[in-house]
Specification:
With 316 residues, the protein is of the alpha/beta class. The chain is 39% helix and 18% strand. The protein has ten helices and 13 strands. The protein has helices at residues 11-22, 39-46, 67-71, 94-111, 148-167, 189-199, 218-231, 248-259, 283-289, 297-311; strands at 2-6, 26-31, 55-59, 76-79, 119-125, 171-176, 179-180, 202-206, 212-213, 216-217, 236-240, 246-247, 264-268. The strands form four sheets. It has a seven-stranded parallel sheet with strand order 3-2-1-4-5-6-11, with helices on both faces. It has a two-stranded parallel sheet with strand order 7-10. The termini are far apart. The mean pLDDT is 98. It binds uridine-5'-diphosphate-glucuronic acid.
């Protein structure tokens, strides 16, 4: 079976590719190396994959490639390409978010009509919920994004649902909750905090650090993709959380314990668009496709710390 992964050189895309190759699938991976962070980091994410004969890489953008021809050759899609990041989505560059997260998704869905696609797994985000009063958040919780990024991810989800209803494309959207681990994007909290601790630098904490997140280890997010591909219900959305709720300050204490060093923290104003708390009810994914996250925050941070400690040169 051959599968398409868009955004294959990103954090989550490259991790899904690695797992699917291990499982024996053939992969067509596409990526246009969007400049949200340096190309050399993304190239490094797929360096090992490129050595594998079952991994075919196409450099290009969904919006300009002959995507229909690529879709003729695959049995399933993992749509991971996007401009990510909640905080950076404010301001004059919003057109990039709509271009890639909305238009890119629509073009891929449109081209998927009348193809032999077994499943189209679409990457969505917990940011579609915004600030929620009642936790945990289930898939029936109203979606009211508080960041422009969240608005585009919700639009992508809605498009996936429309193409399921209108054209029977078997779409599923996975709402990722703050994914972390080896190869995490360099703009994300744990990457920045671990790097700062290793280098003895100061790190800015947005707000008082008492915000909570349902942090999801990358291997669990990858497992959710594979399981949803195999057994998820078409036309549905699923939360993908890590199984527990942790304060940012608590996570920092764990990183200090793992590293044996004290973090130099500078508490600054909280960011517009940042949800105060997230905590996923993951029972729907558990029921439909057996999703059950295995890596707790301590083990996950240990793995991310060790990996980044060994690979920090890539990011400097
Ligand atoms: C993350 C991803 O960046 C989004 O792409 C994804 O859609 C989203 O998760 C999601 O769950 O939907 P975020 O939760 O902001 O967004 O992830 P982090 O960057 O790891 O931030 C976690 C917390 O640390 C936030 O409260 C943030 O304000 C804080 N933070 C982040 C800092 O205090 N300092 C920093 O330098 C970076």
């Amino acid at each position: 079976m051959r599968l398409l992964i868009t955004g294959v050189s990103g954090f989550i895309g490259s991790s899904i590719a690695k797992k699917l190759i291990q499982e024996g699938y053939e992969i067509i991976g596409i990526d246009s190396f969007l400049d949200n962070y340096p190309k050399k980091i993304k190239e490094n994410n797929i360096r090992e994959l490129l050595k594998n004969k079952r991994f075919n890489f196409i450099e290009g953008n969904i919006l300009s490639l002959n995507i229909g021809k690529i879709l003729d050759q695959v049995d399933g899609v993992f749509h991971q390409s996007a401009i990510p990041g909640v905080r950076a989505s404010w301001g004059i560059n919003f057109n990039q978010y709509t271009e890639h997260n909305v238009n890119g998704t629509q073009v891929l869905l449109e081209a998927s009509k009348n193809k032999e696609i077994r499943k189209f797994v679409n990457a969505s985000s917990s940011s579609v919920y915004g600030d929620v009063n009642e936790l945990p958040i289930s898939e029936t919780t109203p979606t009211l994004p508080i960041s422009p990024y969240g608005v585009t991810k919700l639009a992508g989800e809605n498009l996936a649902n429309l193409y399921f209803k209108g054209y029977c494309i078997p779409t599923i959207s996975l709402r990722y909750f703050t994914v972390y681990g080896p190869r995490q994007r360099p703009d994300m909290a744990f990457h920045k905090i671990i790097t700062a601790i290793i280098l003895g630098r100061e790190i800015e904490i947005y707000g008082n650090g008492e915000q909570t997140r349902d942090f999801t280890f990358i291997d669990d997010a990858v497992e959710a993709n594979l399981k949803a591909f195999l057994n998820g219900k078409d036309g549905e959305v699923y939360n993908v959380g890590g199984g527990s709720r942790v304060k940012l300050n608590q996570a920092i204490r764990i990183i200090e314990e793992i590293s044996g060093k004290k973090a130099k923290l500078k508490y600054v104003d909280s960011h517009k668009g940042d949800a105060k708390h997230t905590y996923a009810d993951i029972s729907k994914g558990k029921k439909d496709f057996g999703y059950s996250p295995e890596i707790d925050i301590y083990e996950g941070l240990k793995r991310q710390f060790e990996w980044l400690n060994d690979n920090l040169d890539i990011y400097r």
